[in-house]
Amino acid sequence: MVDRAARDFARVGVIGLGTMGAGIVEVVARTGLDVVAVEVDHAGTARGREALEHSTARAVERGKLTPDEAAAVHARVRYATSLDAVAGCGLVVEAVPEHLELKKDIFAALDRLVGPETVLATNTSSLSVTEIAVATANPRRVVGLHFFNPAPVLSFVEVIRTVVTDEGVVSDVVELARQLGKQPVVVGDKAGFIANALLFGYLNHAVSMYETRYASREDVDAAMRLGCGLPMGPLALMDLIGLDTAYEILDTMYRQGRDRLHAPSPLIKQMVSAGLRGRKTGRGFYTYAEPGSSAVVPDALTPSASVWGAGRCGR
Ligand SMILES: NC(=O)c1ccc[n+]([C@@H]2O[C@H](COP(=O)([O-])OP(=O)(O)OC[C@H]3O[C@@H](n4cnc5c(N)ncnc54)[C@H](O)[C@@H]3O)[C@@H](O)[C@H]2O)c1
Question: H or E segment at 139?
C-alpha cells in the first residue's frame, strides 16, 4: 500500500531527455519544482540542457519569462547519468524510447532505488502500462502520465490507470498535472489511449498517400492545414513526433488491435533505417536547418514555384 501522507512531489525525476523528456523537465521546473534529469551519458545530458536553454531563451525573447525566472528554472534542474540520482524523488517520469523491455528494465531498477511512497510514471504512447507496472514489486504505485508534444505548449495530459493502480496515486497525479498547468483526463490502459488511438491511423494514411505518390508531401500537409484548419499537416507532424517513435507506436497499436489502419506504412521503417527520423536528426519527410531545428529548408523535393500546388509528387 502506498503511504499517501508521505507523498511529496517537490522533487521529480525525469528519465530520458529526448523530444519529450526535455519538454517535461521544462514544464516541471517552470512550475517551481526541483528536477533530477537523467540520460544515458554526458552527451545526452548536454543535449537535454541545450534543449532547455533554447526553449527558455525563446520564452524570454517572447516576454513569457524574465531572465531571472529563466535562471531560476535552470537552477532547479540537476543532470545525472545514473538512475541512482532519482532516489530522493517523490515522482519519477520515464520518457525513454518506446521499447517495452527497456521500460520494464528501468521500472524494475527504479522500484529498488526509490522509497515506497514514490510514484512511478511512464510517458509511453502505446505500450501497456500494466506490463510495465508488473516489472515492479509494487504495481499499485505505477501510472501512465502521457504528455503531448511539445510538452511545454500543449495542455492535454492523459493519466493512465491500470486495473491495479492505487486510486490515491491516480488522484495525486491528476492534482499534480493541474499544478503543472495541464488539463488531465483519466483513461484505462488501452494502446494509444484517446488521442493517439484517433491520431495514428490518420498519420499512417497520410504517409501511405505520399508513399504511393498520390500526392506530394506539401500537398498532403496543405490539405489538412488549409483545407481542414489543423495547425500542422500530418507529415510535418510525423517529423515533429520522430519517425522512430511513430513507427513503434503504430507497430504496438497494430499488434494489439490488428486494425490494418495501424499497420505501419513500409516507408516509415525505411526512413528510420536510413536515419531520417524527423526534426531530431534534421531530416524526415522534410529537411531542417539542423538537428532539433523547426526551420524547414529547401531540398531536392521542394517544388519550384511553377509546380507548387499542381499536385505533383517530387519523391
Ligand atoms: N515524440 C512524441 O511526440 C511523443 C509524444 C508523447 C509521448 N511520447 C513517448 O515518450 C517516450 C519518449 O519518446 P521521445 O520521442 O522523447 O524519444 P526520443 O528518442 O526523442 O528520446 C528518448 C531519450 O531517452 C534516452 N534514453 C534511452 N535509454 C535511456 C536510459 N536507459 N536512461 C536514460 N535515458 C535513456 C535517449 O538517449 C533519448 O535521448 C516514448 O515512450 C514515446 O512513445 C512521445
Answer: none
What's 197-297's CATH class?
mainly alpha
Instruction: Give me the active site residues, please.
Output: 125, 146, 158, 196
Q: Going along 111-190, which residue ranges are E strands?
A: 119-122, 142-147, 156-160, 183-187
Give yes or no for a contact between 47 and 290, defined as CB atoms under 8 angstroms apart: no
Q: Where are the domains of the chain?
A: 4-187, 197-297
Answer yes or no: is the C-beta of 48 below 6 A from any ligand 1 atom: no
With a 6 Å cutoff on the Cβ, whether 250 touches ligand 1 is no
Ligand 1 binding pocket includes 122 (Cβ within 6 Å): no
Percent of the chain clearing pLDDT 70 (strictly above): 95
19 lines ligand 1 (CB under 6 A): yes
**Dihedral sign, Cα of residue 203, residue 206, residue 212, residue 218:** negative
**Nearest ligand 1 atom, CA 18:** 21
Query: 313 Cβ partners below 8 Å, 6+ apart?
Result: 210, 213, 214, 215, 216, 219
21-40: pLDDT as tens digits: 999 999 999 999 999 999 99
State the CATH class of domain 4-187: alpha beta
Distance 22 CA to ligand 1 centre (A): 9
User: 94 C-alpha to center of ligand 1: Å?
Assistant: 8
